[in-house]
Amino acid sequence: MACALVTGATGGIGTEFCNILAAQGYDLVLVSRSEDKLAELSQRLERSYGIAAPIFPCDLSDPDAADLLYRSLVEQGITVNILVNNAGFGDQGAFLDSNWARQEEMIKLNILALMRLAYLFGNDMRTRGFGRILNVASVAAFAAGPYMPVYFASKAFVLSFSQALGEELRGSGVTVTALCPGTTATGFWGAAGMDASNVFSLMGAQSPRSVAELGVRALMAGKPVAIHSVPSKLANIAARLVPRRVSTWVCGQVLKRRV
Ligand SMILES: NC(=O)c1ccc[n+]([C@@H]2O[C@H](COP(=O)([O-])OP(=O)(O)OC[C@H]3O[C@@H](n4cnc5c(N)ncnc54)[C@H](OP(=O)(O)O)[C@@H]3O)[C@@H](O)[C@H]2O)c1
Fold first, then answer.
1. For residue 136, how far is its CA from the centre of ligand 1 (angstroms)?
2. Is the sign of the CA dihedral 185, 186, 187, 188 positive or negative?
3. For the residues 114-135, what does the mean pLDDT come to?
4. What distance in angstroms lies between residue 48's CA and the mean position of ligand 1's atoms?
């Protein structure tokens, strides 16, 4: 069985990735921590689209989780042709006042798990001469983010890593796409301890469906980077034109007001 693996399948953007890929006839492997939500999603997708959607509940910030997931799929004879590294979270607040364990967990999930899954499945894809990897970065990748510094830095890592890996794999049949969503109406904001209505009034609220649609199109086309929404595209241009200290100050003013 060849399929698409989606991490963070039970959240806003992740569930839409699953809906779109299932509608296109892909079998899926669904990954997140909540077993009950995964089971519900799996049943709905299997019933609605006639695909197979096995679940793998795990905490990907656990250092062994990515390897356990990989080994389990190899043992079951499941081949991953499409990897969607979507699971991630943010945490708002001044760094020195933050909960250290939460920052560490963020690095383990947003960076280490994403890297490890790309390493394990990417090697198999390269051997087979085909594969598609989508790493979910963010508009946050374009700037430094005071009052959310670890999250912004983690997404800058995802963007840089994805572009570099994609270049290394040029001509191998394996492509790597970094998706940069802007502010999207999902559970992300609550999990980060932020007031979504305030952020949305400033930056707009994108629908997770439209973000996932762009992501799947870019993934299938093997595009290196896909930026969703006009405000994010403007932020990307501004980050190139404006001195870094200025963009850092602006981000700090925006994020500070939400603390
Ligand atoms: N929403 C936005 O405005 C926005 C903007 C730019 C980028 N992004 C990025 O988009 C991606 C998806 O976020 P979202 O907006 O859809 O957020 P979300 O609704 O909070 O979904 C996050 C998903 O990740 C899973 N997850 C969280 N921690 C996990 C862990 N330790 N191990 C395994 N799974 C875990 C969650 O399920 P469980 O809780 O069940 O584990 C959930 O399925 C993230 O990488 C985020 O940084 C979001």
1. 10
2. negative
3. 98
4. 24
